[in-house]
Structure formats: C-alpha cells, structure tokens
Amino acid sequence: MTKVLFVSFESLPFVKTGGLADVVYALPKALDKKEFDVRVVMPMYKTVKEKYYEGMTFKDHIYVHSGFIKEEADIYSYINEGVEYLFIDNDTFFNRDGVYGYSDDAARFSFYNVAVIEMMLKMEYYPDICHEHDYHTAVLPALCKLKYNAIEKIRNIKHILTIHNLAYQGEYDKSVLFDYLNFDYQYYENGDLRFNDYCNFMKIGIVFADFVTTVSKTYAKEIQTPEYGCKLDVILRYRNKDLYGIVNGIDTESFNPATDENIHHKYSLRNYITGKRENKRSLQYRLGLEDKPDTMLVGMVSRLTFQKGADIFLGAIQEILRRDIQVAVLGTGESKHEYSFKMLENENKNRFVYYCGYDEALAHSMYAGLDMLMMPSLFEPCGISQLIAMRYGTLPLVRETGGLRDTVEPLNEYTNTGRGFSFGPYTTHDFLNVFNYAYTQYYEYPERWKMLIKNAMKYDVSFDKSAREYEELYRKVLKK
Is residue 336 a contact partner of residue 408, using CB atoms and an 8 Å limit? Predict the structure, then answer.
C-alpha cells in the first residue's frame, strides 16, 4: 500500500482560512483506501487544542534543532472520518489565536517543515509520497534532498507540491535559509535556493518537488505567463513537463441541500423549485430585505479584495440597483471596500444588505437562497464558491479565469446547455453586459432559467474525479 502524507498548515474541520483547508480535508477522504494509506500532518493551534485535545492520542516527542531554532514538540494523533491527522504541538510557534500574519512567520514555517522530517525519523514513519500544500510547506522537498539526503528513507520520498494561490509565496530575507533552515550556503550561491537575492519558499518548492500541481487546468496554463506568474512564470515554464492542473471539488456531504441543517428548507432536484423559493424567502427575512420572492436576488460570498473583483462590482452596482433587484454581500476585506458596501446598505435599505464578517450558517443560507452568485474575479486558481453555488442550484456569474473557466459552462441558447454565465475582459463594462444578459434570462425566460438550475445541480462537483487524477499522479511520481 502506498503511504501518502499530506503536509499542510490548515485543514477542516480543525482550522480554515481559505479553500486550502477544504482540499486537505476532502481529498484524503476521496482517495482509494485500498491502494493509498493517507495521513495528514498540521500544526496544533490554540483553537485546535481547546476543542479536540481530549480526543487525541499522544504519539511521540521530538527535538528540532535547526540553525537558531531549538525547540521541542509533541506529536498527537486524531482520527477524523477515517483519516489520521498528526498534530505537531509547540507552544512557541503555534499556541496563538491566528494561523498566519505574524512577524516570525518565517521561523514558524521553517520550524514546521523541519519538524515534519524529525517526526518521520522519531516515529519511523516514512511515506512514499509527501503531498505539500502551498508555500508554508514548500521547503520540505529541498530539506529532504539537500539537508537530510544522507538518510535513504528520507531521500527516497517523492514530493508533490500543490499551488493553491501563486500570489502568496513566502518571500523572506536570505538569512532565513541559514538561520532557521540551516542550509549549506553553496545552495544559495549556486541559485538553487536563491530568488532575486531573497529566500522564496514557493520558488524552492517548485524547483525541488518531483511534480507540481495547481487547482485547475486553466490556472496551470495562466501561471506560466507573465500576467499571472507572479514573477515565477519562467521557473514554471522550465518545470512545464512536471506541472499539472487538477480541478478542485467540494465535500458533497457537508454541502448538500437535501441534508443541510443550516438552510431553512431542504431540497433536491425533485423539489428544487419549492426549495429555492422557500430558502429565498427565509434569506430575505433574515437579512431584512423586502419579502419579494419573485424579485431577482443576487449576491457575493467572498473576500472583498482586488483579486475577487470587488472593484468592478462596485463600479457596476449603481447601474445594477436601477433594476428590480436585491443584493446581499457576505465577507470582509479591504477597508475601502467594506466602507463602500456599508454606505450602499445605508443608501438602499431593504434592497441591499452587507454582512461584514463571516458566518458559515449564513453562507449556506445564501448559497441556497440566492438566484445568482457573482464571482467577477481578476484571477481565481480554482474557486470553491461557484462549486457550492451550483450544488445548491444558484447560478454563478464568473469571469473566465482559472478554475472559474474550467467549471462554469456559460449559457448557450442554441444548444440549451450551460450552468451559469461568464465574461472575459476584466472591465466593469463587460461585467455589466453579462449581468444584464443574466437579468433578462431570469425575468423573460423562466423555463430556460430552470434548465440552467437543473444543469448546475446535476454537475459533478465532488472530489471523486479529482481524486482519480491525483491517484494516477501518485502512481506516476513513484516511477520517476
């Protein structure tokens, strides 16, 4: 049986800051248990310890001496839905309220990568494949191949690095390589560990991983261009033959309108018309919108940043509000955007509502109650929200980028196909054009709208297909 270790800084149900946690939670469950023995390792955060410690089993104690870092850690095990999670418990770096954004993040990430290897050695657990996720864990392949390469069982591990968002790379002063990771200076001097005279964790991972994956096929192509490559496009083109795009899925048990306890009225394809209508009315009541079940209700569940298209949405909103429309927005982000949405709510009572924050139950209610979810992203490696929306029969309006392009087939009136709406150029004008088109479809072609809902709900958004692709990649990397 092939042993696979997922190495991540977050995972549901323990802690989540973005879509990375969804993938690390859902993918191990979807892999073939007869062929793959999958475990997940992650830090033991303060919130995790408070909630899950009683159900954990102590496994071992390790020492991590790497440069200036001299720390100890305990290893705990917890079984969640048939998957073993290993937690690295160290109060110095992880006993905090948050996950990222600390001044010593470089030291925290470095400690964690080294600790994972020390855990393997102490527990005599040697995976055949380490599947690293994003820059926080991206130096692990280099550590195995350059620093621990004298140990055959560590040297022989294969590595797959998944890039969830290339915009975040972990760029630090070059001293991190020596002070915290204790690499030999020769590897910086020859360029292996250097990027523009800095230490860049993502660059190191791309160079030293056996395979590199991204979370959609389109994004795998986009990041090899200067426009989307975030200065790493040259290196990604160099690794082109080892670069794969595999579209994410979602956990269809957690997101299931037929069983979801967070929504007002459970429904499926058999009764979606009643289900959508009842959830819409419930959402209108909850948000203080007018009780108008026939009025088109659109919304966003998103971080309010430039990446997510908040700029062009705000540029179009006054024109949108001239129509028979209601708008609901859930999320936090850049302060200027939050202020703009608050002002819009004040100026458009009972028609526009902005919830500043994040509420999981409300998010589910919006996926079930909205008619259309807007995702006019500047770039989107994969996107989770559009997959959830389609699962609940809410039609996504997206920009044709990354995973949005791969998963949302736009309406084709002539073939009666599609499951949403899309536009190309990143402009307010193009966004408004497709919005107006969708608005017309909703009010003037109700039967076509129902057809789109059916298509969306029938679309397979599970991790099953993605899991088969990863399994094939695991088999392939073992032969490399």
Answer: no
pTM above 0.85, yes or no: yes
Buried b (16+ CB within 10 A) or exposed e, 150-188: eeeebeebbbbbbbbbbebbbbbebebbbbbbbbeeebb
Structural domain boundaries enclosing 363: 269-458
Per-residue pLDDT at 19 exceeds 90: no
Please tell me whether residues 237 and 338 are part of one structural domain. Answer: no
Tell me whether residue 230 is in a domain.
yes
Query: Burial of 360 by CB count in 10 Å (0-12 exposed, 13-18 middle, 19+ buried)?
Result: exposed
Which amino acid, 3? K
Task: Answer yes or no: do 71 and 125 share one domain.
Answer: yes
Q: Are residues 238 and 276 in the same domain?
A: no
Alpha carbon distance 209, 245 (integer Å): 15
pLDDT of residue 32: 95
Burial label for 286, CB within 10 Å (0-12, 13-18, 19+), is middle
Query: Which tokens is 436 given?
Result: 């107006």
Dist CA 164 CA 221 (whole Å): 14
- Residue 82 φ then ψ, to 5°: 85, 0
CA distance 333 to 336: 8
Burial tier of 18 (Cβ tally within 10 Å: 0-12, 13-18, 19+):
middle
pLDDT digits (tens, 9 = 90+) for 332-347: 999 999 999 999 999 9
Dist CA 98 CA 17 (whole Å): 9
Residues 6+ apart with CB under 8 A from 160: 129, 130, 131, 132, 209, 210, 211, 212, 213, 473, 474, 477
Q: Which residue has the tokens 């190309």?
A: 424
Q: What is the pLDDT of residue 358?
A: 84
Concatenating the DSSP letter of every residue in 183-194 gives --THHHHTSTT-
